[in-house]
Write a structure and sequence with these properties.
The chain is an alpha/beta fold. Helix content is about 45%, strand content about 15%. About 45% of the residues are buried. Bound molecules: adenosine-5'-triphosphate and magnesium ion. Adenosine-5'-triphosphate (ATP) binds next to helix 6 and helix 14.
Length: about 425
């Protein structure tokens, strides 16, 4: 990619093409390399001119913007598509993102919005390209995973549906990883509104939480997180969620991101218990993570949401190596088999954890993780296997610094089913 952003305009209306060309002509870092009047012409011009960004009208006769974007992804995949539409409906947005568009602009838009979108998708593609090179460089320089010298691995425990066991898995995973010895393990409760980590670990809710850190982050004075972390007897260091939902409002995406980077720099493994809601903060956390343990259960709603999430994760640039599927309560005999799940979501389940209501709920009510109180149980063994797998994962340096309005836009439609 050169320093100037090469843009191809695709719109069947000549006046719109002219108008967009003129608008972009004022920008010193953007170069309009061509303007196509149809989808077919766009495909030819893209291959010939090598644009970085394609500004694509969604409504065109013959081949519309969505079909053209799909074809473009095959013929010239390095171009990032910014879709333009007069309709802002969720279905249009969703179909555009699934076709491979990186951004969605609703007409009429200002020239600032237009240029910001172009710059944003371009920067994101450039970051992505540099990240593809980075893991090779990391292994060449001997960067290790959790337990090694460099920065730690950040593992987000997520699910697109609530109540499937994220907190249970996050807490026991952190404890199991700490039991392996020699690992500095942090556990961050990012369910900021209704955090349960403190309950599962029987921690005093009067302890400091991330809400206490926010003012320090605002003025950039966080020397060390030590005074905000609670030392649990297992060795895990815990950063609690705010004590009330109102205080949770204070924690923004940039705070969460900075906290994670600080935790990463001071620990070998950072386990983050994420909410299932999809807001900018959670998106920033998932971006920062090296690994997203995505939990599902043998329920049709969980499977449906997972299928949609996997499509979306792909559009958000989360490669298959970043996502691991964890089937919780995998042995539940509720009429759906693991093979059915895998067939439905088109992907293998990476890890399974058995259902053990007795151990899990007893542990929860006592405030002692089952991994500590009932180590021999199958459910503990499953979590230990997961911990071993996670600890062996190298961080995907550099951590993603992607912040995009298309992601924010995507989330609106992507999670509309919830
Ligand atoms: N493997 C398991 N076997 C039996 N029960 C389980 C298992 N995992 C989780 N549970 C139970 O499922 C319920 C939900 O678990 P948990 O609170 O960890 O889910 P969550 O995804 O964090 O939910 P929330 O959306 O409320 O944050 C709890 O009652 C928990 O004890
Ligand atoms: Mg939870």
């Amino acid at each position: 990619m050169s320093d100037r952003i090469k843009v191809l305009i695709v719109d069947d209306i000549p006046e719109t093409r002219d108008h967009l060309s003129k608008l972009l002509g004022f920008e010193s870092d953007i170069e309009v390399v061509g303007a196509a009047a149809s989808g077919a012409e766009a495909l030819q011009m893209a291959v010939a001119l090598g644009p970085d960004v394609v500004l694509m009208d969604i409504n065109m006769p013959d081949m519309d913007g969505i079909a053209t974007t799909e074809q473009l992804a095959v013929r010239y995949p390095s171009a990032a598509v910014v879709m333009m539409s007069v309709q802002g409906e969720a279905d249009y947005l969703r179909r555009s993102m699934l076709a491979g568009a990186r951004e969605f602009l609703v007409k009429p838009f200002s020239s600032d919005e237009l240029t910001a979108s172009i710059r944003q998708v371009w920067m994101r593609e450039r970051d992505k390209a540099s990240r593809i090179v980075a893991p090779a460089a990391a292994s060449a320089t001997g960067t290790t995973g959790a337990g090694g010298e460099g920065p730690g691995t950040v593992v987000a425990v997520f699910s697109p549906k609530g109540g499937v066991g994220r907190t249970t898995v996050a807490v026991n995973l952190a404890v199991a990883a700490a039991s392996l010895g020699g690992k500095r393990v942090a556990l961050m409760d990012a369910s900021f509104q209704f955090g349960d980590v403190g309950v599962l670990l029987n921690l005093n809710p009067k302890n400091k939480s991330i809400a206490d850190l926010v003012p320090e982050l605002e003025v950039g004075e966080t020397d060390s997180l030590d005074s905000f972390l609670i030392n649990h007897s297992s060795g895990v260091r815990v950063l609690l969620a705010p004590p009330t939902p109102e205080q949770a409002e204070l924690v923004g995406a940039h705070h969460a991101k900075r906290v994670i980077e600080r935790l990463r720099s001071e620990h070998d493994l950072v386990v983050v218990d994420c909410p299932s809601s999809f807001n900018d903060t959670n998106l920033a956390i998932l971006d920062s993570a090296d690994l997203i343990l995505t939990l599902l259960s043998l329920e049709i709603t969980s499977i449906k949401n997972m299928r949609l999430f996997l499509e979306v994760a792909d559009q958000l640039g989360y490669g298959p190596e970043k996502l691991r599927l964890v089937l919780n309560r995998a042995d539940s005999t509720l009429g759906i088999r693991v093979a059915d799940v895998e067939h439905s979501i088109g992907r293998k389940v990476d890890h399974t954890i058995v259902s053990d209501g007795r151990s899990v709920v007893y542990a929860l009510n006592r405030g002692v993780p089952f991994f500590l109180s009932n180590r021999e149980a199958q459910v503990s063994q499953d979590v230990l296997r997961l911990a071993n797998a996670v600890v062996g994962t190298a961080p995907a340096v550099p951590a993603a610094t992607v912040k995009s309005s298309s992601k924010a836009a995507a989330k609106k439609s992507l999670f509309a089913w919830r």
